[in-house]
Amino acid sequence: MRHEFIDIGSNLGHASFAGDLEQVIGRAIEAGVTRQVVTGADLPGSRTAAAIAAAHPESLWSTAGVHPHHASGFDPELREELLELLIEPRIVAVGECGLDYFRDFSPRAAQRAAFIAQLEIAAAVAKPVFLHQRDAHEDFAAIVAEFRSGLVGGVAHCFTGGLRELEVYLALGLSIGVTGWISDERRGLGLREAVPRIPAERLMIETDAPYLLPRDLVPRPASRRNEPAYLPHIARTVALVRGESLDSVAAVTARNAARFFGLDAAGEP
Predict the structure, then answer these.
(1) Segment 184-218, tens digit of pLDDT
(2) 3-state helix/strand/coil string of 5-27
(3) pLDDT band for position 266 (cuts 50, 70, 90)
């Protein structure tokens, strides 16, 4: 049986894909990853993601947003440009946006301001949010709670937390994106405990390629670059941890992603 997988978070605009992007997309489709949502993490990157998606209308869509690492550059002009970009129907979510207190590449006050602005934009354009949180759970949850009633949806991208964080995010109505972090025997134990508790209708999967290459992938690429073609490996681990079949995880996560991002209706060719 051939499975269909949807990667809700691939960074195909990353420089590591510049030399073989078409082959990367082809390998993903061959592996059953028939659709992807390409992540935008700043304004130029969001434009690049949109252009890549537009060149592959049968399989790619994109997001547009400003990652907390770049929040210090979020100003009124950028806000207007982002809002204009999000009118494009094949740009299906606002983000990657949120808070990152682990790196603190932007001041925390600037991160919060940019996050709030993007939640306001998401409410205005009626598109879901693609959310990032690292070491900022309390502030992140409080801000999402303040704006949640005005949002059409949100997904905790690359969720790496445990049961406590999961319960909060589920109470906020968020969906959960699971990456190859689940394969990390050192850092992924809390996630492995949480994944069986994710309601089926809230579960989605992603590679976050080229980052987060699953540690148990065999053979491992010499480049250590993650690719969307490895999403079935992540799905198998999710299925194992949940005590479910790969058929079930593939079908449920693809259905959830298509519905959440509106892939069956957004800018069809």
Answers:
(1) 888 889 999 999 999 999 999 999 999 999 999 99
(2) EEEEEECCCCHHHCCCHHHHHHH
(3) low
For residue 162, the cross-strand partners are none
The span from the CA of 172 to the CA of 13, in Å, is 31
Dihedral in degrees, nearest 10, Cα atoms 17, 35, 131, 177:
-110
Question: In 10 A of CB 71, how many CB atoms?
Answer: 26
- Give the contacts of 8 (CB within 8 A, at least 6 positions apart): 36, 37, 130, 155, 157, 177, 204, 205, 206, 257, 260, 261
Name the CA radius of gyration of the chain, rounded: 17
Task: Determine the 3-state secondary structure of 195 from DSSP.
Answer: helix
Checking DSSP bridges between strand 175-178 and strand 5-10, what pairing results, if any? unpaired
Report pLDDT digits (tens) over 207-264.
Answer: 999 999 999 999 999 999 999 999 999 999 999 999 999 999 999 999 999 999 999 8
DSSP H helices in the chain: 21-30, 43-54, 76-85, 108-125, 137-147, 163-171, 189-194, 231-242, 246-261
pTM equals: 0.96
Amino acid residing at 157: H
Who's near 116: CB < 8 A, 6+ residues apart?
Answer: 143, 147
How far is Cα 133 from Cα 139, in angstroms, rounded to an integer? 10
Q: What architecture is domain 5-261?
A: Alpha-Beta Barrel (3.20)
Task: Name every residue whose Cβ is closer than 8 Å to that of residue 216 and which is 6 or more positions away in sequence.
Answer: 183, 185, 237
